[in-house]
Q: What sequence folds into this?
C-alpha cells in the first residue's frame, strides 16, 4: 500500500527534510535479532513490521497504527503505544518527546446524550 502511494507521488525527486533525515539514519547493518519481537500482543505485530512501515514512509504514530494495526487491539494501545513510539523515535533519530501521541476517537456507535448526563 505504501509503495503504491510512493508510485503515485512520483519518483521522489522532491523529498522533504524529514524523508532525507530518515534515509540518512537508516541502519545498513544486517542485525535483525530483535525484529521478531512482538510489540503489540493484541494484534501480534512485530518490531520488524513496525520498522518496515517506518522505512516505507510512515513517520507518525497514527500512521504506524493505521498501516500495521499496532494499538488497535483489545488494550487500545495501553501496552504497546509507548513501545511503538520508542521504535519510531529510534528509526527517525528523534527524541521520544518529539513524537506526537495518537488522536482519540469518539464512540463507534451513536449514543444518546442522556448516557453522559449525571442523574
A:
Amino acid at each position: 500500500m505504501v509503495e503504491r502511494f510512493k508510485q503515485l507521488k512520483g519518483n521522489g525527486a522532491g523529498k522533504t527534510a524529514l524523508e532525507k533525515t530518515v534515509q540518512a539514519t537508516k541502519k545498513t547493518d544486517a542485525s535483525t535479532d530483535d525484529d521478531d519481537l512482538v510489540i503489540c500482543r493484541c494484534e501480534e505485530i512485530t518490531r520488524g513490521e513496525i520498522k518496515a512501515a517506518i522505512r516505507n514512509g510512515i513517520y507518525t504514530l497514527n500512521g504506524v497504527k493505521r498501516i500495521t494495526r499496532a494499538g488497535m487491539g483489545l488494550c487500545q494501545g495501553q501496552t504497546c503505544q509507548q513501545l511503538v513510539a520508542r521504535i519510531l523515535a529510534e528509526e527517525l533519530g528523534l527524541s521520544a518527546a518529539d513524537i506526537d501521541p495518537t488522536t482519540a476517537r469518539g464512540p463507534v456507535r451513536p449514543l444518546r446524550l442522556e448516557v453522559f448526563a449525571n442523574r
Remarks:
- The two ends are 48 Å apart (CA to CA).
- Residues 51 and 81 are 14 Å apart (CA to CA).
